[in-house]
Write a structure and sequence with these properties.
The complex is a heterodimer of chains A (419) and B (606). Chain A contains twelve helices and ten strands. Chain A has 419 residues and is an alpha+beta fold. Chain A has a domain of 121 residues: Sandwich (Immunoglobulin-like). In chain A, strands 3-2-1-5-8 form a five-stranded mixed beta sheet. Chain A has a five-stranded mixed beta sheet with strand order 4-10-9-6-7. The two termini of chain A are 52 Å apart. Chain B has a single domain, classed as Cytochrome c oxidase-like, subunit I domain (Cytochrome C Oxidase, Chain A, Up-down Bundle). Chain B contains 15 helices and two strands. Chain B has a two-stranded antiparallel ribbon with strand order 1-2. Chains A and B meet through helix 1, helix 2, helix 3, helix 4 and helix 7 of A and helix 4, strand 1, helix 8, helix 9 and helix 10 of B. The complex binds protoporphyrin IX containing FE and copper (II) ion (2 copies). One copper (II) ion binds next to loops of chain A.
């Protein structure tokens, strides 16, 4: 280690000395020739002109090589109906812009080579020309008009509301994973409130019972209001002032929360409970049904995330305190895609695409697109939120109930992989 | 502003009582607390160069991680030690810290403070024929704010919990919640204070530039006889004055959210098991405020580079810049439009689709003046008599990168397409080529061209050539392949792309191959910069003495003596009789006519 650092240091020092010596030699010869540093010799000038041209060729070859080797294929064919249109439009734009790129860069580098100073050929005094300037204002404007019109048409389709009969799924994001919630039998997502988040209601779904248990947790839980008050009032307990201050802050926060929870309880209409109870919560793998439109609602628990579906050409940020939406219709099943790609291990994926903390890069969820009958079979095998919720509350420790759920999830991943 | 003499015109005297040049200055007032615009310009340049080296080094550190994830590297452990790179493997959090500080320094400290600070200072008074800036004291203050903010930003790299780690755009809630990532405690606080100070300095500087351009032009220097450099600096300063306060307000609101418990940007959050009471704020509001600065900011970075290259290309083509008026018009149009396009950074935030359409439209409009500028540059080269100095090569390189990055901007501006590539490496490729490369090329071009004016000596031309070729090959090699990484669907700001191995082995291989190519070129390009640094510092002390007008230029700075004096010109200020682009004018006996030469009998102004 030490030795390699020493060697590196010596190499650097020697390098600097070598360059300095070269520069000295160069300067001496320049002095001998009596040429100032600001006078560019014809040889240097021509050489650099040629290199400009050569560079252009090399750049084009490099780009062609990149395109041949890497091109579009990295992401594969678009696997949704809207994605296919995106790709079409993207390719069209690429063709137009690539032409513009080649045209302008070629002129630029070619002129830098062609018009290098030659003795006796003066520059042409050409300060302006209205006609030319009009042309290159209007032509780009027309091309852009085409791009804008086609683009906005597509944008309006992509952002239009989803059809009523589309499958409605919520994707809930937090550092550093995704949870899906299917809307269940009624295809209506139940309501939620972040204040209702407890161990067995991680998504904070709104039902009469969940309000009650949130109140109980807030008041009597391990770090609940009662415990905090007891500790703060306990004369025998010695506490560092800082800790006490923190605890007092925590207490006042919780007291504010509990007031809000009681208000919520008062206003709550138990008729809406059913929308939440029949929802299905799903971790690890997101199952979609081929050729059906899906509407996604996004939520974030802590910071911004972004739901990025590269294979479906869809993306939407998830924002704490706000619900965002997008939709798409997958049109190739996972199985068919694996065959097309000739890659039996390929999977679609949902990635996080907004910086959200250290493990941002690992925040992903595998997506499996199923044939309709397999999808139906899978979804009917899932327990509803209600079933899991009451199984968990009656169980002695809520955390063990959670892990039961996750073993079940691993089971279905396995069964899909067998397809 | 000490020694400035009254001259016969008197109108460009701010205040001046001493005889110029005749009294000895102390080291401190000459080199440190100098109020002379030339010295301040050089101070900006040196500070920014230092920051630029730091930011470049950070990028090499994280590029090593991207190309060879999880493999220990002596180089990484040398700089980061066991805390942040145990066994020479960069930690996840620090990866984000490096990316954040790299972006911040490059955008704000190198390309905003450094580029416009250096050249606005040196060139505005010299090219306008003024004795100094309108206020030398404020000018000095602007540098010291810049310097202080640089120091704070630099020091934040060394604190125990690490620097800010929320990306250069510091979106809340991530940047507002200390629980969310380790750099969000002190590191983020230092980031915010550093930026607040930076903005204050930048505002003082910009106001000074604006006042100087409006009031201190020498006799005959009408607005439409100003070199395009000055137009660019002027519009840049206006953009800065109008947009930086908005970033300042965003930073202050964020500071309040962090320190005073307000909820401007926070709502319904549970983080680290703690349920926050903040309700009703909007993280999206921050993005609006940020990008209301952020988009003009990219032009604040670019316009000075375009201004410098206009001057350099005209001089070294020995031709007038083609379409001088159209160039001014484009600068103004770009300046205006840059205020109404910020939403294109937010297409995917769930904004109202109609609003999105409006931003698509305005953004694509801005491509028109940009295209006009490109065509005008190309036409300036056409039938010129090109002298390919290193400055000229960099200026031509700038036009090329401006094109290459501009065309991908049009794809990103098309919201329907942006859905598929937003926040992927495609965006990283776009803005590094159009902003990073173009502005850095502009800055290098400026240094090569005006070095004789700044230091009275010449840079070594051969080293300049080698530097240029390494830089353009290296930079295209780094940033062009990134398009393909993005098209493969790779998100930006990922610590390790081998996660792809778990679901798509084809993409995995492709992304890893590309990452190795990119890192290879990055190291190559970084080594090339050592040549420049050597050339720069060596020539300051030992370069051959510069002649007064080495490039046979027409603008006023070359009529000032090589030796720097307070007040710039020993006697009267020069008077301007013509526009700055009389190169190869038919009928003239020289291929350039400086601006202070009166029109000959019967000569028409261009
Ligand atoms: C033809 C002109 C241009 C158009 C239409 C354009 C368009 C865009 C769009 C739509 C984005 C957002 C991409 C996304 O996040 O998905 C973007 C990003 C960006 N552009 Fe441009 N751009 C143009 C020129 C420029 C120029 C001249 C600069 C700088 C001098 C620049 C600097 C940037 C930067 C820094 C970002 C990325 C910011 C970030 O997310 O970190 N662009 N551009
Ligand atoms: Cu995330
Ligand atoms: Cu922008």
């Amino acid at each position: 280690m030490m030795v390699s650092k020493l060697i590196a240091l010596i190499v650097i020092i020697l390098g600097v000395i070598a360059v300095a010596q070269l520069v000295r030699v160069y300067e001496l010869t320049a002095k001998l020739r009596n040429r100032g540093e600001h006078e560019i010799s014809t040889r240097d000038n021509n050489l650099n002109g040629k290199m400009m041209f050569g560079f252009m060729i090399a750049l084009y070859i490099f780009i062609a090589w990149l395109m041949l080797r890497f091109g579009w294929t990295g992401r594969g064919e678009a696997a949704s109906t809207i994605g296919k249109e995106t790709d079409w439009l993207l390719n069209l734009n690429f063709i137009i812009l690539f032409a513009a790129f080649i045209l302008t860069n070629s002129l630029l580098f070619f002129f830098s080579y062609k018009y290098v100073k030659k003795e006796g050929v003066p520059a042409y005094f050409f300060p302006h020309n209205n006609k030319l300037e009009m042309i290159w204002t209007i032509v780009p404007a027309l091309v852009l008009a085409v791009i804008i019109v086609l683009g906005l048409k597509k944008w309006n389709e992509a952002t239009a509301n989803a059809a009523n009969e589309s499958i409605c799924i919520e994707l809930f994001s937090k550092q550093f994973d995704w949870t899906a919630r299917y809307s269940g039998q009624d295809n209506k997502l139940g309501r939620f409130d972040y204040k209702l988040t407890t161990d067995n209601n991680e998504l904070g779904l709104l039902t009469t019972e969940s309000i009650d248990s949130a109140i109980v947790a807030m008041e009597n839980g391990p770090n609940g209001i009662n415990k905090l008050e007891n500790k703060l009032n306990d004369q025998r307990l010695m506490m560092i002032p800082e800790d006490r201050e923190k605890m007092e802050l925590d207490l006042s926060r919780k007291q504010r929360m509990i007031r809000l929870l009681y208000q919520m309880k008062e206003r709550h209409d138990s008729k809406i409970d059913k929308h939440a109870w029949d929802d299905i919560i799903q971790k690890d793998t997101l199952y979609l049904c081929v050729n059906k439109e899906h509407e996604f609602n996004f939520r974030a628990k802590d910071v911004l995330h972004s739901a990025f579906f590269p294979h479906f050409r869809a993306q939407m940020n998830t924002v704490p305190g706000m619900v965002t939406r997008t939709k798409f219709t997958p049109d190739i099943t996972t199985k068919a895609m694996r065959e097309r790609m000739n890659n039996p291990k390929f999977n679609y994926v949902l990635m996080c695409n907004k910086i959200c903390g250290g493990a941002h890069y690992k925040m992903k969820m595998i997506i499996v697109v199923l044939e309709e009958k397999d999808y139906k079979k899978w979804i009917s095998s899932k327990k509803s939120f209600k079933e899991n919720y009451f199984a968990a509350t009656s169980a002695p420790a809520p955390s063990s109930a959670m892990s039961a759920d996750s073993t079940m999830v691993t089971k279905d991943t396995a069964s899909v992989a067998m397809n | 502003m000490a020694a400035v003499s009254h001259d016969s015109h008197g109108h460009n005297e701010a205040h001046g009582h001493h005889d110029h040049g005749h009294h000895e200055e102390s080291f401190v007032s000459k080199y440190i607390f100098s109020e002379d615009h030339k010295m301040i310009g050089k101070q900006f340049l040196i500070t920014a160069t230092f920051m630029g080296i730091v930011a470049m080094l950070l990028s090499i550190l994280f590029r090593i991680q991207l190309a060879w994830p999880g493999e220990g590297s002596d180089f990484v452990s040398f700089f980061l030690g066991e805390t942040w790179a145990p066994g020479g493997v960069l930690k996840e959090d620090m990866y984000l810290g490096l990316v954040t500080i790299h972006g911040t320094i490059m955008v704000f400290f190198l390309l905003t403070g450094g580029l416009s600070g250096t050249f606005s200072n040196i060139l505005i008074p010299l090219q306008l024929g003024a004795r100094d800036m309108a206020s030398g004291f404020l000018n000095m203050l602007s540098f010291w704010f810049f310097c202080l903010s640089s120091i704070i930003m630099f020091v934040s790299l060394f604190i125990e919990t690490g620097p800010a780690m929320a990306g250069w755009t510091v979106y809340p809630p991530l940047s507002a919640l200390p629980q969310a990532i380790s750099g969000n405690g002190l590191g983020m606080t230092m980031w915010l204070f550093s930026m607040a100070i930076f903005i204050a300095g930048s505002l003082i500087g910009s106001l000074n530039y604006i006042v100087t351009v409006l009031n201190l032009r020498t006799k005959g220097m009408t607005m439409t006889r100003m070199p395009l450099t000055i137009w660019a600096f002027f519009v840049t300063a206006v953009l800065g004055v109008l947009s930086f306060p908005v970033l300042l307000s965003a930073a202050l609101l964020l500071i309040m959210d962090r320190l005073a418990g307000t909820s401007f940007f926070l709502s319904d959050i549970i983080v680290g098991g703690e349920m926050l009471t903040n309700h009703g704020g909007s993280p999206i509001l921050f993005q609006h405020l940020f990008w209301f600065l952020g988009h003009p900011e990219v032009y604040i970075v670019l316009l000075p580079a375009l201004g410098l290259s206009s001057e350099i290309i005209a001089t070294n083509s020995r031709k007038p810049i083609f379409g001088y008026k159209a160039m001014i018009g484009s600068i103004l149009a770009i300046g205006f439009l840059s205020f109404i396009v910020w939403g294109h950074h937010m297409f995917i935030t769930g904004m109202n689709p109609f609003l999105g359409s409006v931003f698509v439209f305005t953004t694509l409009l801005i491509a028109i003046p940009s295209a006009v500028k490109v065509f005008n540059y190309i036409t300036t080269l056409w039938r010129g008599s090109l002298v390919l100095t290193p400055a000229m090569l960099f200026a031509i390189g700038l036009v090329s990168t401006f094109i290459s990055g501009g065309v991908t901007g049009i794809i990103l501006a098309d919201s329907a397409l942006d859905i598929a590539i937003h926040d992927t490496y495609f965006v990283v490729a776009h803005f590094h080529i159009v902003m990073g490369m173009s502005a850095v090329f502009g800055m290098f071009a400026g240094v090569y061209h005006w070095f004789p004016k700044m230091y009275g000596r010449m840079l070594n031309t051969r080293l300049g050539y080698i530097h240029f070729w390494i830089t353009i090959i290296g930079a295209y090699g780094v940033f062009f392949p990134m398009h393909f990484v993005g098209l493969a669907g790779a998100p930006r700001r990922y610590y390790d792309y081998s996660v792809y191995n778990e679901f798509d082995t084809n993409s995995y291989e492709m992304i890893m191959d590309l990452n190795v190519i990119v890192t290879g070129f990055a190291i190559f390009a970084a080594l090339g910069q050592l040549l420049f640094l050597f050339n720069f510092f060596y020539s300051i002390y030992r370069g051959p003495k510069a002649p007064q007008n080495p490039w046979n230029s027409t603008t006023l700075e070359w009529t000032a003596p090589v030796e720097h004096i307070h007040g710039n010109w020993p006697g009267e200020l020069p008077t301007v009789h013509r526009w700055p682009y009389d190169y190869s004018k038919p009928g003239a006996d020289q291929d350039f006519i400086p601006q202070n030469v009166p029109l000959a009998e019967g000569e028409e102004e261009h």
